[in-house]
Structure prediction request, 291 residues.
Amino acid sequence: MMYFSMSLSNPFEDLFLLFDKLSKNLALIKQEFVQIYDGHSHIQEILPMSSSDSFPIIDKHLGLLHNFAEKNPIYYNFYEQKINDILCRVYEGDINEHWLNSIKHGSSCQPFYPTWILSAYIAVSIAKSFDCKELVDIGSGDGRIAYCAKILDLKATSIEIDDGLVELQKTISVATNVNFNPTCVDAIEFDYSSLKLKSPVFFIGGLPQMGGDILATNIIEKISTTNLKNNTCIVFAGTHSQRQLSGNYSNGGWSALIEKHGLNVMETVSLPTIWTFDQPVDTPYIFTKFN
Ligand SMILES: C[S@@+](CC[C@H](N)C(=O)[O-])C[C@H]1O[C@@H](n2cnc3c(N)ncnc32)[C@H](O)[C@@H]1O
Prediction:
């Protein structure tokens, strides 16, 4: 992939080392940031200002990630700060109102909590390395995963049940001039064949124990009778917190569903999210494909 400012001698192997390095370095600066952060905002996240050895992401893409945050009304403040020698911008925001609205829908499977923007970028880059050409974010919140898909040249669809969040996505889409296809619909009702997908990756926007399993099962049942199944990746957001899981700890809590539907785990990376900000371990993203 030419989105990273380093040369790759063995592109496939080197890419996985690169993703490992990016996720570990992000976890490191997140831990340092948690120690030094003295603000009081409801949510906060960081983005490096420029490409570096620790984050060899091309400046054009880093600029587009900053643009997503700058044009996103959930953030009301930002400032620059060096964290572990990396100059970053800290974004502070509030999602209370959207969170409350997102739980009022009868078939809502998970309230709105976003992945960090750089985490979304790394996760989508990994999906792209598996040759996925289209990305469907199921329960997309403010659309950051679909936004990253679009800037990484995937065909993006952003499925969200809450109309307020979809309006927010449209505002960001217009302001950034990146159309990641915000779609206001209940993911359980949606007819995915209308997207004419060929080799998609579905990101499931919910933890297994909080309703993500309902979203995932629905998608799997819809595609498992079609040829699409052979070319489909599914990415699950899990949890390392054993307190939240009743005895089912492996694969971030997704192992029962993964086994039941014959999925292969191809990669797992831990990435910071808003909901793990104050936790020592981040959110595991589990990349799977059908056997
Ligand atoms: C944890 S958030 C994840 C947001 C985004 N994927 C991310 O990682 O930043 C889950 C989102 O799923 C949405 N959602 C829940 N149930 C849904 C459903 N049945 N159809 C579509 N969206 C749904 C919620 O409104 C919420 O915005």
